């Protein structure tokens, strides 16, 4: 049985800004949701290989759940950061994480924390192993 993440659903009060943000990362609108009045109320943004972010227009986002962040894999983190900066998006400096993966971070228009990952030959996501960090819950 194949199990992989199909999509992440993000509630937004600004569908246009959210779509523009994810387009700056290379996503394209795959399909959209319209209500009975034919008003655009959401869409699936396509990142390739059956990877999507679902955007849903809401009057007010819910304040429930416990997702800290999500990560998007990119082929070149420097190019991704440059494209985002050119689109007016603030990104952090590139860092090599303790998992041996290059990353930059940003927030989408809804305040959601996002990591952009570029895997290396040593990335634990590809090699497995143990990642030791200084963290106590």
Question: What can you tell me about this protein's structure?
Answer:
It is a single chain. The protein is built from three helices and eight strands. The protein is α/β, with parallel strands linked by helices and about 140 residues long. The chain has one domain (about 5-60, about 70-125): Roll (2,3-Dihydroxybiphenyl 1,2-Dioxygenase, domain 1). The strands form two sheets. A four-stranded mixed β-sheet has the order 1-4-3-2, with helices on one face. A four-stranded mixed β-sheet has the order 5-8-7-6, with helices on one face. A hairpin with a 5-residue loop joins strand 6 and strand 7. The longest helix is centred in the first third of the chain and has 10 residues, at about 15-25.
CATH superfamily grouping? 2,3-Dihydroxybiphenyl 1,2-Dioxygenase, domain 1
Name the quaternary structure: single chain
CATH architecture: Roll
Main sheet strand line-up: 1-4-3-2
Report on the biggest sheet.
4 strands, mixed
Order of helices and strands: EHEEEEHEEEH
N- to C-terminal distance: 33 Å
User: What is the CATH class?
Assistant: Alpha Beta
CATH topology: 2,3-Dihydroxybiphenyl 1,2-Dioxygenase, domain 1
Query: What low-confidence regions span 5 or more consecutive residues with pLDDT below 50?
Result: none
Helix content: 10-25%
What would the principal axes of the Cα set say about the shape?
globular
Mean pLDDT: 90
Q: What is the tally of helical segments? A: 3
Structural class: alpha/beta
Beta-strand content estimate: 25-35%
